[in-house]
From TrEMBL:
Protein name: Uncharacterized protein
Species of origin: Tersicoccus phoenicis
Length: 70
């Protein structure tokens, strides 16, 4: 995909279909697509935040959608 100005998009931002107040992000890993190692990507991720299994909201989501969490 090429944008109108000729540049390549880095990703997309879109609202969650499950919660109108939550924003989701998707980023393209162009270097990986070109065969390079993931460590060469400009985008990095940290460890994030742990979700405990005794979290009732988390439990409701995995039950509602049949997700296997371990």
């Amino acid at each position: 995909m090429v944008l109108d100005d000729g540049s390549l998009p880095h990703g997309i931002v879109y609202p969650s279909r499950h919660d109108g107040g939550t924003t989701c992000f998707a980023t393209w890993l162009r270097r990986v697509d070109d065969g390079y190692d993931a460590s060469t990507e400009l985008t990095i991720a940290d460890q994030g935040q742990s979700i405990e299994f005794d979290n009732p909201d988390f439990g409701s989501v995995i039950d509602a959608f049949g997700i296997i969490a371990f």
